[in-house]
Amino acid sequence: MISKITWSEYWIAVVLCLIAYYLIVLLKYYGPQVKEFIFKQANNGSSSSLYDDSEADINELEDVVRDLRYAIFERAALPLDKTVILKQLKQRLSGYRGLGKPAFRVALNNQIILQAKEVCGLSISAAELNSTWDSEEYTGRDSVGG
Fold it and tell me: Transmembrane segments in this chain: where (predicted)?
């Protein structure tokens, strides 16, 4: 009888037995967590809280960029002084927690560079902005986490 079983049939049987074994162990030891996970996924549908949080962060970033354009760049007094603009940016962004997230920091820096060039004709580099955010007297440093 063993000679009639092919290797492929053998491996299929082994895989099915392993799947059944691990399902039993999973349900026996982690039953409540599995049920919670399944029902949580079913109740959430296609949206998840991670997606909602990132969408809120993106909306906050857009609001910050819009605020900076109108509050700083369009109201900049002539002649433009880069250090004054950088101090104003630092003060305006002191409570913005997005500076602690690398992707948002890069996006914000790019938008500031673009807005400064378009609106004021001022050339600001990413290195200057990063040194402004990383300076010790930056008041939002504690709220950002480092």
Answer: 12-31
